[in-house]
Amino acid sequence: MEKLKRSELFGAALVPVTGALVERYNKCLSFIGTAPTQLTNFHIDAMGWSPEIAEEKDDFLYLNSGEANPNAIILSPKQNEKPAYSPFHSFDRDIMNLVFKEHKHTIKDITRDAAICVNLDQYIDAFYEPEDLLKYNQITVDFTVVEDLYSIQQQQLELVEEFRREDNFLDEKLHLKMLASARKHGDLRSRTLKLDSIDYKTSSFYTKAFGGVFVFRRKGSGKNILIFEAKAAAEKMKASSATQAFHIEDGRFYSALAAEKMIVLDPEHSVQSGYFERVQQRIFLSHIKNATHSMSDIIQNSNVYKRYLNNLNADARKQLMILDRLQQNAKNANALDVEGGLTPEVLACIQIPTPELSMDVQELVWKLIVKTASYKDPLFLYWYDKETFYETYNSWNASYQDWVIKLIKQNTWNS
Hints:
The protein is built from 18 helices and twelve strands. By secondary structure, the chain is α+β, with helices and mostly antiparallel strands. The protein has four domains: about 1-145, no CATH class; about 150-185, no CATH class; about 210-260, no CATH class; about 260-410, no CATH class. Strands 3-4-5-6 form a four-stranded antiparallel beta sheet. A four-stranded mixed beta sheet has the order 7-8-9-10. The protein has a two-stranded antiparallel ribbon with strand order 1-2. Helix 16 packs across helix 17. The protein is elongated and about 100 Å long. The mean pLDDT is about 90.
């Protein structure tokens, strides 16, 4: 992970927390029913989630009040537009972007003196059955300022109003009350200290509830599709006329998504986007054993590439030749008429989200593809499923790690 940190691909966007901010953070933890941290400095993401505190508590969901009730903590305006490193839902970062968009100036004002607890309330106290996920239609984002500055502001305004009545300016006790409040809290009268609730509509999403579930919600005559990472949860879910349920190892979900026009086999689009080439490179590199050159040299130097290609067995060379032909014929109407049929290697290169889908649903389908494909595009794995990327990164040899880091740095501007 040190190479990722040096390359600013892990932790670079986190916000440091020290001094008085630690105390404010602990007040928020107490408010949501979580024990305070013993750390004196740490880092947080857009949600206020800290990798150091998660490690300290051995609990990556320490900000949640149960699976159905996630929370966030805002300590600083610097959290705006930062990544969510361990989101409970795929839409968590979108919610935080909306929060900062709607309340940017208020957040800046409040966090001068206090922290903000954010509750993502979907009006479900707890998830009891997987079907409950389909009720996840709207989330109301509520805010609590831990120091309750808004109430103190109202008290100050009332004191000033009382001071202006009749001869109250002569009342020494009233003077002392006003001075005591100003000394303790500052003059809050002209500040913006109240955050109105925000409603966020959900559509299709991924959640860590029930061990991880992809929820594809369809309108009209379409069928909802639930894809579970945990086998026990998948077996518990009963299919109906309106909903199909699959375990993630059950490849039939691809056909279900295709029937709902959410996933397509599109060689032309895959080639044009660069996805085909990256997966093809991954397939090629998977066949190489005991390399004496760096992965970058093998991929980028045509002479070195040919040397390793010719050392592969006949089946591997044929497999790569079929992919080369498919890439060359991608624009042809009969491009999918490939020798040997739609093998896992072919599908890995051309199976993509339907381009007409909304961007958030496309990203969800990509997350599913990179999690389940036989051969994973490391760039899209980093973009769409960072947790899986970080988990698998350590299993790669050093040369492949270097090649992947270079690939990501060349194609990523804001992680």
